[in-house]
User: What shape does this take?
Amino acid sequence: MKIIVDAFGGDYSPEQTVLGALDALGAKSSLRIVLTGDEEKIAEVLKGQSYDKTRLEIVHAPAVVTGNDVPTEAVRKMTDSSLVKGLDLLASDDEAQAFVSTGATGAVLVGAYMKIGRIKGVSRPALAPALPTVKGKPVILCDCGANIDCKPVNLLHFAIMASAFSSAVTGAAKPVVGLLSNGAEAKKGNELNKEAFKLLSECPHIDFAGNCEARDMLSGDFDVVVADGFNGNIALKSAEGTAGAIFSVLMDGINKGGLRAKLGALLLRPVLRVVKNKMDYNAQGGACFLGLNKVVVKAHGAAKRKSVCAAILQARKLAKSEITEKIRMAVRTAAETGGNDAD
Amino acid sequence: MKIIVDAFGGDYSPEQTVLGALDALGAKSSLRIVLTGDEEKIAEVLKGQSYDKTRLEIVHAPAVVTGNDVPTEAVRKMTDSSLVKGLDLLASDDEAQAFVSTGATGAVLVGAYMKIGRIKGVSRPALAPALPTVKGKPVILCDCGANIDCKPVNLLHFAIMASAFSSAVTGAAKPVVGLLSNGAEAKKGNELNKEAFKLLSECPHIDFAGNCEARDMLSGDFDVVVADGFNGNIALKSAEGTAGAIFSVLMDGINKGGLRAKLGALLLRPVLRVVKNKMDYNAQGGACFLGLNKVVVKAHGAAKRKSVCAAILQARKLAKSEITEKIRMAVRTAAETGGNDAD
Assistant: This one.
């Protein structure tokens, strides 16, 4: 399995990205990685590291796309950037099965869409992170920001694609799907949700459990939570912000709490670390951009070695599970049974 | 100041609701409270409690509206319920300035709207809780669920009303307003948001700081965050669910962590309690239903004594600040300068 990794564009690139790639190579002996980016800078990070040189290739790409670049323009014009070169490689190399980037989300999405193309029948590709839950297994939130204004059929496709994703990651035969809404009752929801609720209820290819309140998103009762990109983004970032706020207030309390608090924190450190790791969605890998002809994973911009490695291994797992083919089949079957009016 | 308190409808009613009312009476000597609900059951809770009897009145109302009742029907037909009787009192008694209930949100909103009526010029009354932030001062989230499908002008009114609320609660002269969106940049947002962004930018009566990512909602950088009721509800409940998930994983870790973890937790208990209290939005009081002709506060269904007391004192503060008059003025001024096309 060959995976392309954009070595630049993240907050800790290239160092942490390259080290994460080496960790992934160490973890899976059948894995081959192509790093795209400034050759010299990558070589500097590799110096002194021990790894299987036959499984790592570097493709020189001196430019870096940043969050300040306009995505469509960057993808068209910055052909010598680590992002665009990586996506071109993914598109042209039949052996390459996945692409991982810590780069600017907008550019990664636009680039992947333009270079790799969407699966026939998928109305809108969507960004789907795997989030931690109280029960340990992840929940797939789809969409979390790629599609801001949606139609009901888009949400049906999100459900179908994210179900395939969930099966690939957890092995669940029929993942439980919830529709993000302002209440658990069937009558709740805005206009979009009410229409989508009908489509999801009528689709025989997913296990639709009804509305999911944002409060229950991380409960572990759902394997997939479907939302338009605007609301999914709000749910995701509200969760992220709250976790950050709680840890910030906790650290502040410990710092100001004198000896007793500091000793308590020291003793509780292993537990606090477990909590932080368990609730840290970056540790789960990246967000998969579902609905394209090949696997594209967007890791967090602030991803360090461990998260980059997790994202690469997740991309490998998704490609190995033939998720693209599964989504193609699922969307086609849904269309044949009337659950699709997009194409 | 006379405040009507619905003694029933909450998870811990009437006991915790009545005790919370007594605490509020104890805290403010100029406060008078009318409790509505089953006289006998209320008397049972009062037995043995010491309080100023001249400042507490009970109005018998044997029925209880629950979440299973259809709001409009309940408000029309259950005239002997603690909720409807309370609202009727608020509407008819000129001395009564505020109403507090832990009852079913839908019924409280519908009842308050039907019985008290909206302020002239306000396109839609909205539910606005005060949430805790990292900086200590609260942020007002408006709307968080009363209006599921909104128009841009509704969001402008939410901003105006919540600014008046924020000033009343924190004393801030010009509260900083953010618009909940999927990114901080001005170009971010769905169709509704982009239109609302324009209206908010052009309104001279608020201090609009641009888009607010859900991640920054609890940062303390904003005094007011405006959203349609669907998005606001998702942001609020995602925050609530995440806080719950973190504490649940933490408790689980402590329980399974052996002696070391338990000792650590014991030493850290004061800090953990501060974190829990600081991040617990119920401790801040209730959610105010803004835009009505009198103050209506919806406390959490699971509110206990302390939260009920906080909600009553918050209602008192709001009424004392003449928030209704302030909102009336602010909406009128906004309309005169072209920022309102609702009426």
Q: What stands out?
A: Residues 22 and 51 of chain A are 7 Å apart (CA to CA).
